[in-house]
Each structure stands twice: as C-alpha cells, then as structure tokens.
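#dry-run=false #mode=assembly
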Amino acid sequence: MNDHTPRHGRNEPSSMFFWPTADRPVAVKGDGIYIWDDDGRRYVDASCGPQTTNIGHNNRAVVEAMRAQMDDICFAFRSHFKNGPAERLADRLAVLGAPKGLTRAFFCSGGSEAVEGAIKLARQYAIAKGEATRYKIISRLPSYHGSTLGALSLTGDPQMFAPFAPMMQTQPKIPAPFVVERPEHESEDEAALRYANMLEDQIIAQGPSTVLAFIVEPIGGAATGALTPPDVYYARVREICDRYGLLLIYDEVMCGSGRTGRYLAGEHWLANPDIVAMAKGLAAGYVPLGAVMARGDIVQTVEDAGGYAHGHTYSAGPLACAAGLAVLDVLMDNDLVANAAEKGAVLKARLEGLMDEFPFIGEVRGKGLMLGFDVMADRQQRIPLPPSLDAGSAIAQACYDRGLIIYSRRMLDGVRGDHFLVTPPLNVTSEEIDLIVELLRQGLSDFAPKAAAVMA
Ligand code: PLP
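#status=ok
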C-alpha cells in the first residue's frame, strides 16, 4: 500500500503551486466511476477530472498492459529507436481517422502540446506550399485551447490571456455560435449560418493571404459548456475555409476519443478537418498522452520540404503509447463509443427533465457523454444569474459536498456562463446515471433558494 499521507495536513500550505482552487481532500483510491479520499469518503466522478478518465479509474487491463510494458522498457528516444506501441497506436488511429482523411499521427504529452503541434504543422505546410504570408489563426470567443503561450494565443478568454498578452501574438477571434440567443425572427439554422459567416468577415478583415487556419472545438468544452452548433454550421465553415485556402483544425482534446458517441466528434458532420488535436481521453488519465492527427498529404508535403520541425522529449514514448493502446482496446472491445451515445441520450433527457424542477437551468446541450448545462436568471431572455452569486462554484461545491463531482466553469465574468459539464466515463451504467442525477438534484436543491431570491 502506498503512503498517501501528504507531508502537510489539510488546509496547510503546500510546497506545490497551482491555479488556486478550494482546499481539497487527498485522493487515495479510484475504481470505475468512484474516487475515495483519505477519510474513506466516496465521490462519484461524473466529471472524469477535466473530461479525462474516460474508461473510469483503475482499469485492470490498462494497468496490466502498462506493467507489462514497464517490464520491457519504459523509455526509448525516437531519434535512437522506434518502438512497437507508438507504431501500433499510430496505425490504429490512422484507421479510425481514415474516413476523415486523417492518416498520420504525431504524439505528445497533452492537449496544449497537441494544439501547439497542430498549429506548427499548419504553418510549416503553408511555407512548404509557398504561402509563407499565412500565419494568423482564427479561433472563437469564448474558447479554450490550452495554457502554453501558442495555445493561449488562440484561447478566447480575455482574463486568462490578459497578463501574457505582451508576450505573444494574440490571434483574431469570432464569436462562438450561441444560437439559442438568436433574435426571434431568425431560425436556428439561419443563426448558425450568420455565426459561420463571421469567419468569412474576419478573414476579409485580416487580409485573406495572411490567414492560415481556423481552430475550433467541434463540440465545445470548458469554455462553452458543450456548445453544439446546428448541422449547417460546419458545412459552411468548411466551405469558407476552402474558399480562402485556410486549414480547418479541430481541437478534439476534450470532445474526441469517443466521448460524444463517435470516436472523433467531427464524425457527427460531413465536413472534414485537415488537422485534429487530441489528448485527455486518448490515454484516459493513465499517463500523459496527446496526439496531432493530420491529412496524409499535409504531412507528406512538410516531410518533402525537409520534415516536421517540432518535437518533445516524451513524444511517442513506449509506456505512454502502450497505455494509449490499452485504453483504445478497452474502448473498442466493450463498445464504449456506442455506450457513450446510448447512455448520453438517456442522461441528456434526464438533465432536461431537471429543467422543470429548477427554472434557473438555462439550456442543456451536447452530444453523447459530452453534456453541459448553463444557469440563467431568465431562461427565455437568456439573462445570466448575477455574477455575485458565483453559481458555478456554489453548485459544483454543493454537489461535491454530497459526493458528486461535476465540472463548473465561469466564462467571461459570468456573463457567458456559469455553466457545468456532466461528463461521466464512457462505461457509465444506467444505475450510475440514476445516482448522478439524484445527487445532482440534491446539489441543485441546495442552491435553489439563492437563485429564487434573485429571480423573484
Ligand atoms: N484544448 C482543449 C479543448 C481543452 O479542453 C484543453 C484542456 O482542458 C486543452 C486544449 C489543453 O490541454 P492540456 O490541459 O492537456 O494542456
């Protein structure tokens, strides 16, 4: 048994430093959807951390596969050796990506690295094609693409990037398609097309020959609470990218790896991305692992021009890739992508059901088990709850106190949000969904009087 006792007790300073969060207990054990703390208290992890532990905690098949790999070799540097797990994982991803034309993979250690890798591949492709004037990457507001400076320059969160703005080249943004806030005379599809057309306006404003790519989470994550645009949106986006010679990059760091009920979230639409960034669910929290998936001809063009000038020490390490392969086996052998679609539909309907009981739930959104909801003082008018209520933290904490972990986020000062992600593992059972919904109901009930006071 490992020693899980922290050097310091609870509520005492730590030698580590992080983005501030509430003081938290010590996690000592995980199994499936549950985590236990050092007081023996059980939590239902309906968040998968930050949408990461997609096959649940402590899956024995993955642990055994990692142990077997560790017995053989933990690390071999790619400049010195090939390794089987990395080659096999790339082959498996190429098969999964083939319907979208994504047949080549670069491995890294997380989402920010995957986004950096994706935009650097895009830039090198433009240079190789003789289009070196292209360097701007349009993204959406709000959005989250990572915390390293390149990825942060794409992240649509003014508070997050403001301190670092002088250190980087902030990239142009267009509004994320919150079509639910459309004017009365407009249909959902019309609103979605209006939002998509903003991409064209921005390209023209920037100067088309300077714009390299558009990056987007096909189904939104932390920044938009599972925002899912109507089907017409991505077809129009693709059309505009083609018209102006932009690459379309999907950031599937959160929504990929089966979470939305398709292996790639982009599979929900006919439009094909050129490059996809993946991480989180790829190795499902067992090790840090990310990937850039790209069209074969893009990679070939870059290779012909001298090769992809990018890499990390841990790129394509055998242990990380062995874990990624084992996670993929668990996903496929147990039909977990289909389970995500099926259980996701049930959970979404149950969350929508909670709207009758809790008038401050504004909208439930998402696909598969990438589900979210936001809270509003007025659902019809889309008036947010006052930021002073801090509904995001208050509701998530009320749930936590009852043993349920959901993911809360407050974007743009609570003006666009507060919202929540409810994203259990892809092997969630019907009984576990019952438990999640019941605990969520209790957490929302704890908060309800506060909302009622400002809604009255
Ligand atoms: N892109 C998206 C859509 C994300 O959700 C995240 C993390 O939440 C990232 C990129 C950055 O990933 P990481 O935290 O692994 O660097």
